[in-house]
Structure formats: structure tokens, C-alpha cells
Design brief:
alpha+beta, 11 helices, binds phenylalanine, catalytic activity, acting on a protein, aminoacyl-trna synthetase, metal-binding, magnesium ion binding, tRNA-bd_arm
Length: 336
């Protein structure tokens, strides 16, 4: 039993063979057990001797099986470590990573600037009621200025908003002035029935802004636009206001900033003026306040509407607005 057992244990190559051997040698029906059972047939004097011999052999076999098992486990572990070895110096597979669209990046920057000045950021419906897009913005039916904004109509009363200004009315209606002033920006997409060309897109972006409180002046408007311009483009950029007309502001202005291309010296981009027009603004018309249920004798303020598409074109020297909407990754991935 001993020689055979020890030899077979040493020769075992896997755990299963070892288990079988253990059962055959040490199990209930194994050789050792059988031998121990046979003791009763021996003469009384020999029983203790043979019994202790068999017990010793059982212990030896059990020990040998245990150490063989440890040896096999270690070998298996070594093999596994070898097979699964990772060379950490190999270059990894690169995972393609997206990034926000360049226009969204500019909008995020604008939002952050105004959040820093205590504004809330609201978003509103792109499919808008005509009442908000026009009537509440002091553009009654048949008002000639409706033609300024060629409109996609969905039904007689529902349209694709032509500007983000309806958010002025929505914010004014909602705001509780007993809790403090209204300061809000609202970015989003707007639509106009324009024929697409390098400077026109039937879909583009605006960020509306409005501040309403007691004692707000046009100087506050100019200062606010200056802060935005300096933070977006740098301190050397100046802001200039020119008189203009919008039905929902009185007085109305258009704001120019220092030309990016020539730094204010005058070039083809700014038609020699040194200035680039970037936004419309003004003091909110009393009719707009009244229609939204705000007392225009007590409250007043300014509003503005900026075009992030135009900012992006100026900042990055893009000369065709349509590039922003064509989803050509060769163009868009430049702005990572
Ligand atoms: N809504 C105007 C436009 O689309 C911009 C504007 C906003 C003008 C707010 C004045 C005040 O051109």
C-alpha cells in the first residue's frame, strides 16, 4: 500500500486524480480502512503493532496528499499568472471622446458669466405661441416689424420662435418681485425663414437677457455688456451702443464691439469702421411689462439678445455659419 500509494500521489498531475487517490487510500472503503478492519483477524499480540503501523501510514499518506495538493495549486497559480501577464508598458487603445459643440461651448461660457453676476438661466419652448413671440413683445397683428422676422408657422397661433425674446414675457409673468429683482438669461435655438448662405441660417442661437428692478438705467446695460465682452474675449475689447429700433425696447440700441480681425483699426471684415455689430438691446418697453402683469410705473430695466453663432464665427475666424450645422466632424473636432 505504502509504495504504490506514495508513487501514485507523486505522479498525480491534477486535483481530480489526487481526490480519487485520497478516496481509494484513506476513504471509508479505502485500502487503509480495509487493512484496519482486517486487524481483528490477527493474533492479539500483533494487533497493536499493525494498528499503529497502519495509523502512521494513514498520516503519512494524508500529509503527502496535502503537500502534493499545495504543489499543484501553486503550479496552477503560476501558470495563470504567466498566461494573464499584462505588459503595462504597451500603448493603450485610445477611446474616442466627444466634446460639446463649439456653439454650446460659447453658450456655456455666457451662462457662466451671468450666473456669476447672480442671474438665473431659463430655457423655453422652441415651438412657441404666437402670443408670446409677437403680441406680448409689443408686436400686435399687422405690425410692420413682424416682417423683420420671417416666420415658420406651425398653425395660425403656433410658430417656431423667431427670437428668444418671448422668454422675457414668460420670465416676467412668473417672477415674484416681492422676492427681489428679475435677472435672467435664456439661451436657445431660434428659427427664421431665411435662405441659407454664409451669413444666414434658418436655424441659429440666441441668448436672451433681462434685468428688471427699480432704478435700472442704460448705464447698467452698458456695464453689463462690457463685463460679458471682457470675460468672453479679453479686456481690450470695447463696447459701443448705437441707436436702433425694436418694438419691445425703448430706447433701443445695437451694440458693437472692437473688430477682432483688425483690432479696431478698420478692415474688410468691419467695413473699415473698426467695429463689429454683435447684439440688439434696450430698455424694456412699458407695454411689455404691462402685458406681463408688471407695474411699469415702479419697475423697469434692460434686455438684450446676443448671437453665440456670430461670437463663434468672430472668435475662431469661421466665415460660413452653415459649417456649425453640417455635423462635419473634420470641422467640429477642431474645437475640442
Ligand atoms: N430679439 C431681438 C432680435 O432677435 C434682439 C433683442 C433682444 C433686441 C432684446 C432688444 C432686446 O434681433
Amino acid at each position: 500500500i505504502k509504495t504504490n500509494g506514495l508513487q501514485s500521489i507523486k505522479a498525480a498531475q491534477d486535483g481530480k486524480t489526487l481526490n480519487d487517490l485520497k478516496v481509494n487510500l484513506l476513504g471509508k472503503k479505502g485500502s487503509i480502512t480495509k487493512a484496519l478492519h482486517g486487524i481483528s483477524e490477527l493474533p492479539v499480540e500483533e494487533r497493536p503493532k499493525i494498528g499503529s503501523l497502519a495509523n502512521k501510514l494513514r498520516d503519512e499518506l494524508a500529509k503527502t496528499i496535502d503537500s502534493k495538493r499545495a504543489e499543484l495549486d501553486q503550479a496552477a497559480l503560476n501558470q495563470k499568472l504567466k498566461d494573464e501577464k499584462i505588459d503595462v508598458t504597451l500603448p493603450g487603445d485610445s477611446v474616442p471622446k466627444g466634446h460639446p459643440h463649439v456653439i454650446q461651448q460659447i453658450i456655456d461660457e455666457i451662462d457662466d458669466i451671468f450666473i456669476g453676476m447672480g442671474y438665473q438661466v431659463l430655457s423655453g419652448p422652441e415651438v412657441e405661441e404666437e402670443v408670446y413671440n409677437f403680441e406680448m413683445m409689443n408686436l400686435p397683428k399687422n405690425h410692420p416689424a413682424r416682417d423683420m422676422q420671417d416666420t415658420f408657422y406651425i398653425t395660425k397661433d403656433i410658430l417656431m420662435r423667431t427670437h428668444t425674446s418671448p422668454m422675457q414675457a414668460r420670465a416676467l409673468q412668473k417672477h415674484d418681485f416681492t422676492k427681489g429683482p428679475l435677472k435672467m438669461v435664456s439661451p436657445g435655438v431660434v428659427y427664421r425663414r431665411d435662405t441659407d448662405d454664409p451669413t444666414h441660417s434658418h436655424q441659429f442661437h440666441q441668448v436672451e437677457g433681462i434685468v428688471i428692478d427699480k432704478h435700472i438705467t442704460m448705464a447698467d446695460l452698458k456695464g453689463t455688456l462690457e463685463v460679458m465682452t471682457h470675460k468672453l474675449f479679453g479686456d481690450k475689447f470695447q463696447v459701443r451702443l448705437r441707436p436702433s429700433y425694436f418694438p419691445f425696447t425703448e430706447p433701443s440700441v445695437e451694440a458693437d464691439i472692437t473688430c477682432f480681425n483688425c483690432n479696431g483699426k478698420g478692415c474688410d471684415v468691419c467695413k473699415g469702421t473698426g467695429w463689429i455689430e454683435v447684439l440688439g438691446a434696450g430698455m424694456v418697453h412699458p407695454n411689455v411689462l404691462k402685458m406681463a402683469g408688471v407695474d411699469s410705473n415702479v419697475y423697469g430695466g434692460f434686455a438684450f439678445g446676443v448671437g453665440p453663432d456670430r461670437f463663434a464665427m468672430l472668435k475662431y475666424g469661421v466665415d460660413d455659419i452653415r459649417d456649425f450645422y453640417l455635423n462635419d466632424l473634420r470641422f467640429l473636432s477642431q474645437f475640442d
